[in-house]
């Protein structure tokens, strides 16, 4: 897979599939504990069948992307995304972001230049800063420090995932092996820490391209209907779709619905 070198000790691992028939390139922003492989598994085959391309990459600290200790912040993550766009020059880019990845997608677009998108897909992104979000973000970090990703998954999966996914996957969780916290210099832990001070109140009114906002109604951690209503009203050209049978991780829980929603929306949005 290609690698973009950013500076000494810092690089981005990415994959790029060109569109056909004048299609768009879906440029996918991970969540902080995500991986670019999720996008290909969830939507890759389906968007390619519709003539679209796919650009995925891992943030510094995620698999295959090197990092230095002082290289973690929301601004740096957006800088890196724009650097990938400048290097790859994706055709007719449409940004797709999961969770905080949607925030990075909006920020990249608002930068302009290589970061500008033809459209933006937000997957369980819309939220506001406040005591609850701050508590959740800090608790996730504490959880990773104490028991690593296994403890995070055991505690948060029943709150983030839909009931069908829980029933199908319960046997893979709450094992007898115990927990081990992530090391202080672990890339995932450093990414999670970078999310704590992130500012969420982007100038939504300045987003000048079509936006698709997808919300899983079974997300019991980040979904706040009143906040979603308020922020949705600030985006001029917004299509909103609420999924009653999905939680926070729609690409994992309902990949077929996600791919269909994105492709259908893009066809209408142009």
Task: Explain the layout of strands and helices.
Elements: E1 3-7, E2 10-17, E3 25-29, H1 37-49, E4 53-57, H2 74-88, E5 93-98, H3 100-111, E6 119-123, H4 131-160, H5 163-169, H6 187-195, E7 211-216, H7 225-232, E8 238-243, H8 250-253, H9 255-269
Parallel strand pairs: 3-4, 3-5, 5-6, 6-7, 7-8
Antiparallel strand pairs: 1-2, 2-4
Helix pairs in contact: 1-9, 2-3, 4-6
Estimate the strand proportion. 15-25%
Average pLDDT score: 97
Number of helices: 9
Major sheet description: 8 strands, mixed
Polypeptide structure, described:
With 270 residues, the chain is an alpha/beta fold. Helix content is 42%, strand content 17%. It contains nine helices and eight strands. It has helices spanning 37-49, 74-88, 100-111, 131-160, 163-169, 187-195, 225-232, 250-253, 255-269, and strands spanning 3-7, 10-17, 25-29, 53-57, 93-98, 119-123, 211-216, 238-243. The protein has an eight-stranded mixed β-sheet with strand order 1-2-4-3-5-6-7-8, with helices on both faces. Helix 2 crosses helix 3 (100-111) and helix 4 (131-160) crosses helix 6. The model has no long low-confidence stretch (mean pLDDT 97).
